[in-house]
Every structure is written in C-alpha cells, then in structure tokens.
Design a protein that fits this description.
single chain; mainly alpha; 14 helices; globular
Length: 235
C-alpha cells in the first residue's frame, strides 16, 4: 500500500505546494466536541442528510428552519410522542419536503437513539457521547450500526451526517473509490464488507504514519486522485 509521504507529496504537487494543501485539508475534527452536542442536534443532522439524499441540497437547506419548527426542534421526547396521523399531516405540509417515507424516519431514528441511551449495557447518557466515543479505527463499524439500527442511514448518508456533526470520519467519494480501485486495494462492491475493511485498514495505516485526522486524510486521498489536479492559489 502507498505510504502517507508519497500520497501527501503527490497531492501537494497537484495543488500548488504543501502550504496550500494544508489549508485545503482544513482543521482536525475533534470528537470531544461532538459529545457536547444535544441529541436534538444529532437527530436534526441525521434527518437533514436523509432529506438531502437524492434531492437538491440547497432546497432542503432553505426549508430546514421549517423542519425545525414543525418537528419540535427535534426534541427526542416530543418526536417520539407523535402519532402517525400527526406525521401524515406534517408530511403533507408544503413548508417542508413532502415525503411521508422520509418523514417517518425522523421518529424511527429517534427510537434508535432513545433505545441506545436506555439499553441495559449503555455506557453513555446521550447518543452524542455514544457517537463521540466510537473509535476512529472502526468507523465502518459505526456506519454499519447506523445502517442496521437506523432508517435510511446506509450508503453515504450516515457518513455524511457524521461529518456534519463533527465526528471524524472518512467518506467514500468517487475520487476516493477511484483511488482504491486503481491501487487494487478493492476490486468488489464498494460497500461490501471486504472492501470496507480494506479501506478502513488503509486509513488506519495512514493515520499511524501522520498526525492527520480521518477527515483530513479523506480529503488528501481525493486531492491526490483523479482529474481535480488544478492548482489553487491564495493571496
């Protein structure tokens, strides 16, 4: 597997030097900040990414204040008390995206969060702390948890939602997939267990060779791959 130094050097050459690359990589995402979030913000982020999936993100963003108002600012206790008739009425309201199947995921994912917090073996008093404590060397395990326990949080939706709340994670963008295929690290389905384990192991290796977060490493792979080799200049 390619060493971190080689990957970094190629990305720097493509982007106009190490100084510019470091700016593009951004700051480290810090999991301890995730732990300070309210679970309402976690549910809001999950729900927003679900509605953005397959839809124009800007439209969802513009309507999101209406979602916040109509779904009690995503307060878990209030969301869990909504009867189905109320959900149906809200799903038909033009102030939000009218998609009943997606509206139902709000309560379903609130149940996932509530059940985790109140399970007999729970070690955390909030779902935010549960996510924050998940080890970075097993992000695919957290992805799998959200996919199996939640609704419509599989594929890239869960990882993008985690990134949105500040959880340090890599993403499986087209450039990143292209890198792993070109280097013959994966050869099957991107979301297969074999491929995900191979990708996680690669990121774990690069993290052991550097001081970069998973989010930064994810960007680094993308910058070192594909057609996005236009150099960037900053004043």
């Amino acid at each position: 597997m390619e060493k971190f130094d080689s990957l970094y050097q190629r990305a720097a050459e493509r982007k106009g030097g190490a100084a510019i690359l470091n700016l593009l990589l951004g700051d480290n995402q810090q999991d301890h900040l995730v732990a300070k979030l309210g679970d309402d913000r976690i549910l809001s982020a999950f729900s927003k990414k679900i509605f953005q999936s397959g839809f124009v993100w800007r439209v969802v963003e513009n309507k999101w204040p209406n979602f916040e108002e109509m779904f009690f600012n995503f307060d878990l206790a209030k969301v869990l008390m909504m009867p189905e008739e109320m959900q149906e009425r809200k799903a038909a309201d033009a102030r939000i995206i009218r998609n009943f199947n997606k509206v139902k995921t709000i309560q379903a994912n609130a149940h996932m969060m509530f059940d985790e917090i109140h399970s007999d073996n729970s070690q955390h008093d909030s779902f935010a702390k549960f996510i924050a404590a998940w080890p970075s060397n097993d992000m695919i395990g957290l992805w799998d948890y959200l996919k199996k326990k939640g609704q419509r949080l599989g594929g890239n939706t869960g990882p993008y939602a985690l990134r949105a709340i500040g959880k340090d994670t890599f993403l499986l963008t087209r450039d990143i997939e292209a890198y792993f295929r070109a280097n013959k690290i994966i050869d099957g389905g991107l979301q297969s267990k074999k491929s995900l384990v191979a990708i996680q192991n690669a990121f774990n290796q690069w993290q052991s060779e550097s001081d970069l977060s998973l989010s930064q490493l994810s960007r680094l792979v993308a910058y070192a791959t594909g057609n996005n080799n236009v150099q960037v200049e900053f004043d």
